[in-house]
Every structure is written in structure tokens, then in C-alpha cells.
Design goal:
By secondary structure, the chain is α/β, with parallel strands linked by helices. Helices cover about 25% and strands about 25% of the residues.
């Protein structure tokens, strides 16, 4: 069976076919040479039976299978048994590439053995083309609908906003405090260095900078130089701590001047990054070129001097003095002479006339009666006062010192002049003075005139009207200006005919 099937394989098929063609040509030649054809008697015997024919063909195909394996002819017989054998051979061997026609048993069918390969290659190429086309369309679509997300970390948020706007990508920003990242710098992003679909969302974490609520322990700035203070502020990102440099005539360049808290009700020990403060450091002395010529301000007004100094950035110091010759409000003298070259920030002192002065007289040279006439335009108030040392009628004091001057524009004060009335004299108040009159008597007669004389009251048994002064420790004599008088006041509890010796005394 295998030998029979081998006749229908590639090379054997071509070889068998060529042999059949040659056999037919030989038979045609032999038939033409025969003068008289001999009729043959057709018998169905062992030789021409279908079984012998099948065996003869099989033997012949096997004998010549090695001659030419590229040629094979397959003739389909109308014998059912042979057809079933061929079908069985086709089922068992995938290499059979021809079939016998059932319509015409004598017809021979030729089959191209490369046809199926060509068809297979064609379909493969078509399939590959479709695959390549599909991939190309997909790639074009993908490129048009997707965009590569770059790495935005450590970059500005504005750059991310611009990119998302240009590429139709939604942006979600989450902000958080981060000491190591600048404000609006990207900390993290949800997608980077790969493509995302347009219209999808990109989430980024943006820095708010260092936490403003973080407490900072401030150093002792007066022990730091300017560069050290700047370095501390940079390292701790205390941007609300401002450094101000200003000129100083007494502090060296770069040295600490002062520290001020700008935020109210915050102490330096409670300082937080959000609180505002100022650090002052010296720029040293400010040096200017002396290129300003000093004018002559004699008899110029104060306003003229002030205008010139402001224009040329000269410090102005004004003093006043009376003058009998220079009009009130005009310059009497100046500290820098005319024509002298000065620099900015130098100080010019000018003396402005206050007009003619009124001088306070020496009232010790006058009696109390003469004082008002010698006041020289001042209002005088004469006062008399007790004194242990100054005799009666003599000068004790005056409220404004001698020689003080007052200009024409000044208000003239009243001058109080005190003269002595000597030592205080205590009168006899017994039997004619009531206890209720004592405060007025001691104030008007003594205390109002500079004597610190007081009294102490005690009550005694007496027939004198109740409340009457009946006893005094001192009376009808001079006493010191600082004295205490003991006064006895009657109880009025004794009848008149039973007077005691104490009352008589």
C-alpha cells in the first residue's frame, strides 16, 4: 500500500506521468505499423480483472518510482473498489495532491503542486499586511491621543500648568509644606516619563515651602556678624526675618545694632517662622565728598536756612538768643563760616534772634513796698512768711531766678516774691476761743504764712462753758515755726462755785 501511495508523491508523480506519456506514444507507433489490426477478444480473466490491473499498476509504479520522482500521473478508474482505496490512501497520507475524476473515467487531471503553497503565501501576506496596517493605524491613533509626561519634580508649578494646558491634560494640585522644596516647586507627580491619554488627569504635589507654624529658636544676634546672621536666616528659611543695614557713627561696619519684633504681642523666645522681625546691622560711617559751599546766612530768616539745608541734605540745629541789634526771627550767627566746603549729612548750627530780652530783676535788693515798682514789666506777687532766721521785712525768695531772660515772643510769667514777717507769735486763746475756731486760727495765722504750727486737744473738767479753750501749753510768746501747742478744752461739767485750782490757773 505504501508503494502505491508513493507514486502520488511529488517527484514520483512527475516521473509516472512522463512514463505514461512515453508508453502511449509507443503504443500509437506500434499500432500504426501494424498492417492489419487483430481484433482482440476481451475477456474478463485473471489477467484483465480489476484486481490484476490494480496489482499490475502498483507493481509498475513501484518498479519505476526511483526514475523520476518529480512526475506523477494519477488515473481515476470507475471501479468503486479502487476509488475507495485511493480515498483511503488520501486519508492516510497528506502528500497526495491529485484525485480521479468521477465524471469521466478516462479523463486525466493534472494538479499544480505549488498552488496551495502560493495560496498559503498569498493569504499569509494579506494577513501580514492587515496586521501591519492595523498596527500602523493603532500607532497613529495612539500617538494622536496620548502624550509623554516629562519629569516635573523640582520644577515650577507654572511650568506644569502650561504643559497640561497645551496637551489637554487635566491637572490636580495638592499642596503641602516641605522644608527642602521652594514654594510652588513640584515634590511628586502621579505619572512621569511615560505616556498618558489626553483628557486624563495628572496629579502633582506642590510645595508650600517650610511650615510657617514651626517654632524657631533665635540665636543671640548681637554675638553674630552680618554674614553669620544672613547664613542663619538662609539655613532656617526664616524669610520673615528682615535684615536692615543702616549707617552708624558709633558702630563698626557689619556689627549688630538692634533687634525688633514687628509682629505684635510676640516675644523672641516664642518666635515662629511666620512672625515678622527686623535685624539692624551697621554700615559704618557714611562718607560724603565735601563739595557743597556754605553761604552766608547773616540776617536770613530761619525758613531760608531750613530750605537750603534740606535741599543739600545738611543737618540743621537751631538755637535762639536775644539780641538788641538783630530782628526777631533772623540769623545772628552760624557755626560754619561762609565759603567753607561741606559734605552731605554734616551739621550746621545757626543762632536765631529772639528779639530784645526782658531780664528778671533781683528782688532781694528791694523791700516789699519797692518790689512791684522794680518788676521791669513782670507781674509781681508779694507774699509774707514766718522765718526763724530771716528778720522781719527782709527778702526770703523769688519764684524765678535772677537774670533769666524772656524774649518778646515769650509769655511773661508772674513772679512770686516772699518777704519775712519774723518768728511766729502765739496769742492767748483761753476763755475766749471755742474748739471749733481752732482750725481756722491756726491755718490763717500761722500755716498760711509758712509756719508749721499745729495743736493737740485734750479735754478737762471745768465749770467754763463746754468746748471753750481753758488751757494752752504756750501763749503770748514767740515760738519756732515748727511747733505743737497742747490745748485743753472744757467739759463744762463743774458748777461755778466749786472751781478747781487748775481752772484758776
Amino acid at each position: 500500500m505504501s508503494d502505491f501511495l508513493s507514486n502520488f508523491s511529488g517527484e514520483n508523480y512527475k516521473h509516472t506521468r512522463q512514463k505514461k506519456i512515453d508508453q502511449k506514444e509507443a503504443e500509437s507507433t506500434a499500432s500504426a505499423e501494424a498492417t492489419e489490426p487483430q481484433p482482440e477478444k476481451m475477456e474478463m480473466g485473471p489477467i484483465n480483472s480489476p484486481e490484476n490491473d490494480y496489482e499490475r499498476n502498483t507493481t509498475h509504479a513501484t518498479k519505476h518510482s526511483a526514475v523520476n520522482e518529480k512526475e506523477l500521473i494519477y488515473t481515476k478508474r470507475p471501479v468503486k473498489k479502487k476509488r475507495s482505496l485511493i480515498k483511503t490512501a488520501q486519508h492516510d497520507s497528506s502528500s497526495v495532491e491529485a484525485a480521479v475524476s468521477e465524471q469521466n473515467p478516462e479523463e486525466m487531471t493534472e494538479t499544480d503542486p505549488t498552488f496551495k503553497n502560493k495560496q498559503k503565501k498569498k493569504y499569509i501576506l494579506i494577513a501580514l499586511g492587515l496586521i501591519v496596517l492595523s498596527i500602523t493605524i493603532f500607532l497613529i491613533y495612539y500617538q494622536l491621543t496620548h502624550v509623554m509626561v516629562p519629569n516635573f519634580e523640582a520644577k515650577e508649578l507654572s511650568e506644569v500648568r502650561e504643559w497640561t494646558s497645551e496637551n489637554n491634560v487635566k491637572l490636580e494640585v495638592k499642596q503641602k509644606y516641605d522644608f527642602d522644596k521652594d514654594v510652588n516647586s513640584i515634590i511628586h507627580q502621579s505619572v512621569k516619563n511615560r505616556k498618558i491619554k489626553k483628557g486624563s488627569q495628572l496629579t502633582v504635589d506642590a510645595s508650600l515651602g517650610p511650615d510657617p507654624e514651626e517654632s524657631l529658636s533665635l540665636p543671640v544676634f548681637k554675638e553674630l556678624s552680618l554674614d553669620e546672621a544672613k547664613l542663619w536666616i538662609k539655613e532656617h528659611k526664616a524669610d520673615n526675618l528682615a535684615i536692615i543695614e543702616e549707617y552708624s557713627e558709633s558702630i563698626n561696619t557689619g556689627d549688630f545694632i538692634k533687634f525688633e519684633m514687628t509682629t505684635k504681642d510676640v516675644k523672641p523666645e516664642d518666635y515662629k517662622r511666620k512672625d515678622k522681625a527686623k535685624l539692624y546691622f551697621s554700615k559704618g560711617k557714611e562718607v560724603f565728598e565735601k563739595d557743597i559751599s556754605m553761604p552766608d546766612f547773616a540776617n536770613k530768616t530761619k525758613e531760608e536756612v531750613n530750605e537750603w539745608t534740606k535741599k543739600n541734605e545738611i543737618s540743621l540745629k537751631v538755637e535762639e538768643s536775644d539780641s538788641d541789634s538783630v530782628e526777631n526771627g533772623k540769623v545772628i550767627s552760624q557755626s560754619i563760616s561762609k565759603g567753607t566746603k561741606v559734605a552731605k549729612k554734616e551739621t550746621l548750627t545757626v543762632v536765631i534772634s529772639a528779639g530784645k530780652a526782658i531780664v528778671v530783676p533781683d528782688f532781694s535788693q528791694f523791700t516789699s513796698d519797692e518790689a512791684e515798682g522794680k518788676a521791669g514789666g513782670f507781674q509781681v506777687q508779694i507774699k509774707q512768711s514766718f522765718s526763724d532766721v530771716v528778720p522781719y521785712g527782709r527778702f526770703i525768695s523769688q519764684s524765678i531766678e535772677v537774670g533769666k531772660k524772656f524774649s518778646e515772643k515769650d509769655a511773661k510769667p508772674a513772679i512770686q516774691v516772699v518777704y519775712s514777717i519774723g518768728k511766729p507769735f502765739i496769742k492767748d486763746l483761753r476763755n475766749n476761743t471755742l474748739e471749733g475756731d481752732l482750725p481756722k486760727i491756726f491755718f490763717d495765722e500761722y500755716q498760711a504764712k509758712g509756719a508749721n504750727i499745729t495743736y493737740e486737744v485734750h479735754y478737762v473738767d471745768s465749770s467754763v462753758t463746754k468746748g471753750t479753750v481753758v488751757q494752752m501749753s504756750s501763749y503770748n510768746e514767740f515760738i519756732p515755726i515748727n511747733s505743737i501747742i497742747q490745748i485743753g478744752v472744757s467739759k463744762g461739767n463743774i458748777q461755778a462755785d466749786k472751781k478747781t485750782e487748775e481752772e484758776t490757773e
